[in-house]
Amino acid sequence: MCWGLKARYMLKLSKKTDLYNADSILYCLSKGPQSNADNVVEQNFNNNANTDYLEGDPISANGNYDFAGYGSNQRITEYYYNLLTNMRGAGVVDPRMPKIVPASMANVQLVNGKVSSYTWLRSIGVNSYNTTDKNPAPVGFTNRLVKGGAASVATVTYASAATNVIYPFTSSTAVADHPAFVASLIAAGKVPKNGSNPGDFADSGNYVRVTYKPGSVYIASTNYIQAGDTAYVNLRSNSLATTGVAQPANDVTWYPTLAAYNAGVVASTGSFQIRPISDMELLMYHEMCFIKAEVYMRKGDVANAYAAYKAGIQAHLDYMQSKLNQWKGSWDKTSAGIANPDMNPMDQTAINTYLASNAVAQNAGTLTMSDIMLQKWIAMGVSIENWNDMRRFNFSAGNVGSFGVVYPGYQRGPLFTGQAQLTGGSPTDPRYWIRRFALPPTYEIQYNFIHTTALNAHATDPNIWSMPVWWDAATDNEYYGYLK
Q: Which of 65, 155, 411, 479 is the most exposed place for a label (fewest CB within 10 A)?
């Protein structure tokens, strides 16, 4: 573990020509994890309702669950979704996709208050910065977060009885969106195609009324832009400490209400890395493989880089499959006795097809640094190492070495408090990208102001987020220049 961590930390020096040493990293890797048997994980449990004294987070659950697996605002981004469905432009779905991207029940039919029939609705990705999108999506999807900030993607609720929602179309923008909104309802099966059934749907032109049937998962908002937010399935799972319903320990599926739980209607199947019972991945063999691939690529040894790249993909697939096999039969049943498909093993044929497809570089001659880092992105998931890597490569600026754009299509999002604080005129400007967090305003800024500002005079600046940390600057002079 220590040798593997040392390799990870030494890799962060890749911008510093006087400190980066490829052969030293390879030496550390030779003494680090050599297979999945050497993975270092924190095993987690769902066996009590105890919570942290300060934050109220579950104590026995996976830390990543505390960060991203419960609450109302966690969704898959469109960027991550596209990596899992269109890597290298191949149009091939990654077998890991349905284990990472959650689904909810849709088109539910209840019999005697219980789920009788349903379909699984796989989440689409939230478009957090683009002005156009490639996914079929509800009205208002374009620049979805710009519509109203991070909370603008609404959380679903459950219709235990037939529920009417009336959507006004009175502004000029809403009137223009009206035909597309009705078409989206029809496409989603929420109203009859001819719109003639007054029990389900009514359209006066200025107002649209939709009746959500019992068993529906819907958005309890009269804002027509949010009506289609059921397409963005929450990443949420449930632990004993957060469930709010009488849910047994071996069911970590998310139900939004007790009525939904009793009916067996699932609002989210959860996501592989952030369930309360998921492993907290501390140091993994697949990370070592991708570090090796990057280092060899920097050395110009493409053959060894390719071998490590393929080994990293296989190692992550094998690790996931092993965990999914552990969950099958013990953790995958919903309250209605229905298997949660996202906690079952991947199909081996799908794995073989993916590995043989153009989504994966098929020879050393076609391998790029982008191939390595994007596969590492998928494997590392919510790990902060993905952010560390992106900073080292300047995100999608394409100005590090001769590697080109390593994270194609990635853009700076709009979610800053105060657009006037945006820094940097273009992606090639180091101050354009998010490079650090601000210090806690109470404990550090308020109570430790003198020492904090002595270390960095800009620590209290609103745009401190754009200042590179020391290892993210090519030279000491560059870094100290930021501190002036």
A: 411
* Burial zone of 205 (CB within 10 Å; 0-12 exposed, 13-18 middle, 19+ buried): exposed
Contacts 24+ apart (CB under 8 A), 207-210: 207/166, 207/167, 207/168, 207/169, 208/166, 208/167, 208/169, 208/178, 208/181, 208/182, 209/164, 209/165, 209/166, 209/167, 210/164, 210/165, 210/167, 210/185
Between helix 2-11 and helix 285-299 the angle, nearest 10°, is: 40
Least confident among 36-45, 365-374, 445-454: 445-454
What 3-state DSSP class applies to 31?
helix
The sign of the dihedral angle between the CA atoms of 396, 7, 467, 430 is negative
Q: With contact defined as beta carbons under 8 Å apart, do 310 and 58 qualify? A: no
**φ, ψ (nearest 5 deg) of residue 203:** -135, 110
264: in domain: yes
**Residue 282 lies inside a defined structural domain of this protein:** no
Tell me the C-alpha to C-alpha distance, in Å, between residue 396 and each of 24, 399, 410.
Answer: 28, 8, 6
Segments of 70-113 assigned E as strands: 103-111
| Domain-located, residue 357 | no
Q: Are residues 118 and 260 in the same domain?
A: yes
Nearest to 276 by CA among 244, 252, 251: 252
Asked whether 268 and 234 are in contact (CB, 8 A), the reply is: yes
Q: Which of 212, 247, 273 is the last residue of a domain?
A: 273
CA 445 from centre of chain = 30
Q: pTM for the whole thing?
A: 0.92
DSSP class of residue 366 equals G
Last residue of a domain, which of 230, 251, 273? 273
Q: How many distinct structural domains can be found in the chain?
A: 2
Structure tokens at 82: 């596209």
Please answer whether residues 383 and 281 qualify as being in contact, where contact means their C-beta atoms are separated by less than 8 angstroms. Answer: yes
CA distance 393 to 383: 17
pLDDT of residue 415: 57
- Sequence-distant (6+) residues with CB within 8 A of 294 are 11, 305, 369, 372, 373, 376
Task: Kindly state whether residue 243 falls inside one of the protein's structural domains.
Answer: yes
Average pLDDT value for the chain: 89
Question: Do residues 411 and 269 share a domain?
Answer: no
> Residue 472 is part of which domain span?
407-484
CA distance 480 to 226: 46
**Other CB atoms within 10 A of residue 180 CB:** 13
